[in-house]
Design goal:
Blueprint (H helix, E strand, L loop, with lengths): L1 E5 L3 E5 L19 H10 L8 E5 L4 E4 L3 E9 L3 E2 L2 E2 L5 E4 L4 E3 L5 E9 L29 E2 L24 E6 L8 H9 L2 E7 L3 E4 L13 E2 L4 E4 L5 E4 L6 E2 L3 E5 L1 H7 L7 E6 L2
Parallel strand pairs: 12-20
Antiparallel strand pairs: 1-4, 1-11, 2-3, 3-10, 4-9, 5-8, 5-10, 6-7, 6-9, 12-19, 13-14, 13-20, 14-17, 15-18, 16-17, 16-19
Organism: Galbibacter orientalis DSM 19592
Protein name: Allophanate hydrolase subunit 2
Keywords: ATP-binding, Hydrolase, Nucleotide-binding
Length: about 280
């Protein structure tokens, strides 16, 4: 059991998501940065699909009421164990009464706290991922508790390869979207040669970009979308759908981010730069 003393800015339980209900309008949800979340689980011997705590920008304060192993990967948010600095991508033995807290955000935007055996919160439609209207909570609540698995013996692997995930990289790998060919040559040049900045409108639903392409008058029937779909509004704005996004949309889908690109974008903050790199 974990007691939540402070919830942080936006901390939520996520796993790899729910994939079989998109035809019912249910978003995939799940971890925004799959690379970091999987690595945190791997460090303590969890299945990669085990539920983790996704922590955004400002971390929570948590009290552990039982023993476990933890690992933190992703953004560096100055984690502390009982007031002492601890480090990302390391395994820590947690005892009853131990406190985990976080401080200054130093790099990235989201980190992942994994506990041995995963978080034992409610499973809804095959996933433990929190999403408002499907689950009781969308983010941590002060004073609530989280169930975790019982501690088991586990020999930590000392020579596990490091995580290859550079948050300072600006390059997002993309494929052509279904409506890419609607773009004019000038618009293609803008999107593939331009440098874009993340707008303040960024969340688990979507990231908007500050710069706009030349406007257009294209219209399409409402069609399916995925996390990583880049929508192109008539005003020329680019909207990149993320894990909690709707399952359909009526804007041209000009690009599709790879899963690695989604993970990288999830670590970008307002004003940070990105560029698109087209994969053929």
């Amino acid at each position: 059991m974990i007691q939540i003393h402070k919830p942080g800015f936006y901390s939520s339980i996520q796993d790899l998501g729910r994939f079989e209900y998109r035809d019912k309008g249910v978003p995939i949800s799940g971890v925004m940065d799959m690379i970091s979340a999987k690595f945190a689980n791997k460090l303590i011997g969890n299945p990669e699909k085990a539920a983790v705590l996704e922590i955004t920008m400002t971390g929570p304060e948590l009290e552990f009421n039982e023993e476990t192993l933890i690992a933190i990967s992703g953004a560096i948010i100055s984690p502390k164990l009982n007031g002492n600095d601890i480090y990302n991508d390391e395994v820590y033995h947690i005892k009853k009464g131990d406190m985990i807290s976080f401080g200054k955000l130093k790099n990235g935007f989201r980190c992942y706290l994994a506990v041995q055996g995963g978080f034992k919160t409610e499973t809804v439609l095959g996933s433990k991922s929190w999403y408002v209207s499907l689950t009781n909570y969308s983010h941590l609540q002060r004073g609530k508790t989280l169930e975790i698995a019982k501690r088991k013996e586990y020999k930590v692997k000392e020579h596990l390869p490091g995580m290859n995930h550079d948050f300072n990289n600006k390059e997002l790998e993309v494929y052509k979207g279904p409506e890419f060919n609607l773009l004019s040559k000038d618009q293609v040049n803008q999107v593939l040669s331009g440098i874009f900045n993340v707008a303040k409108e960024n969340s688990r639903m979507a990231y908007q970009l500050k710069q706009q392409l030349f406007p257009h008058k294209y219209s399409i029937l409402t069609s399916s979308t995925l996390p990583g779909t880049v929508q192109f509004t008539p005003a020329g704005k680019l909207i990149i759908l993320m894990k909690d996004a709707q399952t359909t949309g009526g804007y041209p889908r000009i690009l599709q981010l790879t899963e690695e690109a989604i993970a990288l974008l999830a670590q970008k903050r307002t004003d940070e730069e990105i560029i698109f790199s087209l994969k053929e």
